[in-house]
Amino acid sequence: MEAAMGLMRRMPPRHSETALSALLSLLPQHSSDLLSQVDLPLQVLCDVDNGKEFILCEYNRDADSYRSPWSNKYHPPLEDGPYPSSELRKLEIEANDIFAIYRDQYYEGGISSVYMWEDDNEGFVACFLIKKDGSKTGHGRRGCLEEGAWDAIHVIEVGPEEEGTTRYCLTSTVMLSLTTDDESSGTFSLSGSLRRQMNMNLSVADGHLCNMGKMIEEMEGKLRNSLDQVYFGKTREMVCTLRPPAEVAQMRLPDS
Amino acid sequence: MISIFVFSLFPSLSCFTNQKAFTDHYLLLHISLSLSFSSAFLLFLVPNKSKRFRFFPLKFALQRARKIGMAEEETELSEEQRKEIAKWFLLNAPAGEIQYVAKDLKSVLNDDDVYNEAVSEAFPVYNKSHMICLEMPGRFGDVLVTSYGELQDNEYLDPKTAQVAIVDHVKQVCTEVRPATDEELPSPYIEEYRCALDIEMSKYVGEAYPKGFCSVYCTNGKDVEGPGSDFELVVVISAARLSPQNFCNGSWRSIWNIEFKDDIQILELKGKLQVGAHYFEEGNVQLDARHECKDSTLFQSPDDSAVSIATIIRHHETEYLASLEASYLNLPDTTFKDLRRKLPVTRTLFPWHNTSQFSLTREISKELGIGK
C-alpha cells in the first residue's frame, strides 16, 4: 500500500486518474484505502430543476445517483437515498448560498457545492467543494491560461457541542494544473496536488458556518501560497540550477 | 463483503479484457472509474492514517450494496495487461526516478515474471527518451544513451571517442566498451564537421550547464565523401539534477537537428527544448515545459559553421530560459489569479459575520453590493 502511494506521488498529477485506475486494477484488495487516500479532479452534473450545476463526490452519492444541493433531489432519481435531516438541510442550503458568494469573490467564476450529513457522534460532517476552470475558454478572466483547473475538497468533521465550543477537523485537498502556451515561450505546464489538515476548537457563538468558512478561507490561502511560493518556487529553483542564467544575470545588473 | 468489492471493480476491469493496449483506454477507465468509485469506498469504515471523514452509516452502505446488483462476474487481469500497466508507470516516471518507481511497482505487482518483462521493455525506451548519461569504464568519459546513437538494442556509439558502449538498461550502467568499426563511424568529410561542432558545443555546454553533457551525431548522410550532397547532424544536450533527499529532481533536454543543405549553402536548425522538474515533499508538483524553435545560417567551413551553430543555439537557449523565468514571475499575480485570487477585489478577507445564520446571506450580499 505504501508502494502504491509512492507511485501516486511520482506520476504526473495530470495523469492521476489513469494512475489510480491502474492501481485499483492491480490491487483490488486495497481499493477502499486507495479510494479514500487519493483524490481525483471533480466532476459536475446539471440539476434538471433549476439548471444550476453541482459537483459530484462521494458525499452526495448513492449507488449511481447524486444529490443536488440546490433541489435536494437525486439525479437520476432514487427511491430511498439518504438525505440530511431537515435542520441540517437548512444549514446546508445556507452554506451553499454563502459559499457561492465566497467562491465568486475569490474565484470570479467556477462552481461550488456543499454537502452535509449527520455523523454517528451527534455531530455532522460538511464537505465544501470548488471547481474552477481557469482556461481562456472557461472562466479565466485574463485569458492567459490555455488550460487551467483548480479543484478543492474541504471536509470538516464537526464534533458535538461541549460547553459552548465545538471541535472542527478540516482536511483539505487542492489539485491544480495550469498551462500557458505562446509563440515565444512554448508550452509551460505546472500541475500539482497538496493535502493538509487543520483542527480548531471554536466557540459556537459565531455559528457553524462562520467558523467553518473562516477555517476554509485560511486553509485555502495557505495552500495557495504554499503552492505558489514553495512548490512552484522549488521547480523554478531547479530550472535555474540546471542552467543558471549567468549571462542574463550579468545583463540585469546595471538595471537593478 | 469481498465479493461486493470485486463486483464494484468490474466496470473498471472490463476495459482490460479486450486485446487493445492499455494506453487506448484512458477515457473508458475514467468513466468506469467514476462508476466503480463508490461501493468499495463506502462499505468500509476506514480509520486511516490521514484521519479523514466518517463514512455513511453502515445501513446506507448496505442499501447501496443491494442496489448495485449481483450479476457481474469476477474478472482477473491477464499477464499482458498487467505488464502494460507496469510499463505505463515506468515510462511516466519523472527524470531520475525510474528506479524508485520500479521498486514500488515490484511491490505492487507482486509477480516477478511480469515485473521483469515490463522492466526489460520499458527501461530502454525511458533511457533513450531521457537521454541518460552513463560513465564508460576505462576512462573514456561519458556516453549518452539516445536513439541517434543506437547501433543495436544495447549498443550506443559515443562519437567523441569513437567507442561503442554496451549498456545494461535495467541497471542503467555501461558494462563494457569496444572501439567502433569504420562502418559505424561517419566518413572523414562528415567527421570534420561533426568534430568541430562537438568541440564548440562541449565548450558551450561546459559553460552554461553545471552538469550537462552533449553529443553530436550524424543522422543522415554519414557516408558522404565530399561537397555536393546534403547531410544532417544532430546535437543532443542532456542535463539532470537529482536530489532525492531534498525531494526534488529535474532535467533539461535539448535536441537540435541541423540540416546541411549543400545546394543552397544554407544550414537549417530546428531545436526542441524540454525542461522538467518534480518536487514532492508532502505533495506532488511537476513542471513540464517545452519549446520549439527554428533558425538558419550560412554553410561554411567546418570550424566556422561550428561557431555559427553554437552561437545560435546558445542564443535560443538563453532566450528560452529567460522566458521561463518570466513565466514564473507572472505566476503569482497573473496566471495563478485566473485560478484563484489571493484576496477578493475588496482586498479584505471574506466577511463571515457573526450575525444569525439566516440573515447572513442577505447581509453579505448587501455589503458586497451584489443584487440578489
From TrEMBL, chain A:
Q: Where in the cell is it found?
A: Cytoplasm, Cytoskeleton
Main localization is cytoplasm
Against Pfam families, the record matches this protein to: F_actin_cap_B
What name does UniProt use for this protein? F-actin-capping protein subunit beta
State the family it belongs to: Belongs to the F-actin-capping protein beta subunit family.
Record bears the keyword Isomerase: no
Q: Which InterPro entries match?
A: CapZ_alpha/beta, CapZ_alpha/beta_2, CAPZB, CAPZB_N, F-actin_capping_bsu_CS
TrEMBL record, chain B:
**Molecular function terms, GO-annotated:** actin filament binding
Q: Which residues cross the membrane?
A: 25-46
Looking up Pfam families in the UniProt record yields: F-actin_cap_A
InterPro entries hit by this protein: CapZ_alpha (IPR002189), CapZ_alpha/beta (IPR037282), CapZ_alpha/beta_2 (IPR042276), CapZ_alpha_1 (IPR042489), F-actin_cap_asu_CS (IPR017865)
Gene Ontology terms describing biological process: actin cytoskeleton organization; barbed-end actin filament capping
Does the record bear Membrane in its keywords? yes
Give the keywords, sorted. Actin capping, Actin-binding, Membrane, Transmembrane, Transmembrane helix
What would be one Gene Ontology cellular-component term for the protein? cortical cytoskeleton
User: Which domain of life does this protein belong to?
Assistant: Eukaryota
Family, according to the entry, reads as follows: Belongs to the F-actin-capping protein alpha subunit family.
Q: What is this protein called?
A: F-actin-capping protein subunit alpha
